[in-house]
Amino acid sequence: MADKDKPLLIKRYASRRLYNTETSDYVTLEDISGFIRDGRDVQIVDLKSGDDLTRQYLLQIVAEHESRGESVLPINVLTDLVRSYTTQATSVVPQFLAASFEMFRDSQSKWAEGMSQMNPMMPKIPGLEAMKAQQEAFLKAMAGNMGKSWSGPEKEAPTAESDEDLAAIKKQLAELQQKLSKIDK
What we know:
Elements: E1 8-12, E2 18-20, E3 25-27, H1 29-37, E4 42-46, H2 54-67, H3 75-85, H4 93-118, H5 128-143, H6 160-184
Parallel strand pairs: 1-4
Antiparallel strand pairs: 1-2, 2-3
């Protein structure tokens, strides 16, 4: 039985074939991408040397999606990433990206939490969980495990201003729901 808390171990053979150690079968990059979209962490190691190849393969998956027109990264972001490899910024960029993605995840979960608090009877939005898992996987792929080394400031406690913002968002959502219900009729 698979342990979902541990990363799925994929071994790369000398023939460059990828072997899923849990199911004892060969997998493709698309299969690995599917595991990640389903919320599973993966670790890809070279069978002979034991080298961790996870980053290399995750970047390859991202590159393949980008080449098929499934663009997530704007050209200016890709350009800045390339520049960061040739400047002193290489030490700061990983921490910045990890912190940015962490803030993005936090705001995403706060939005979902606000939606459920506003209307707990509202049915789940179709595909929301899959989208959330896919975004989390993307963020993990982009940031790797760099977030663990982030030593930035602690999160601030909620303020009255953030409560007001949440109330305003709830009001706007309620108005949108009313408009949508009028359209459905």
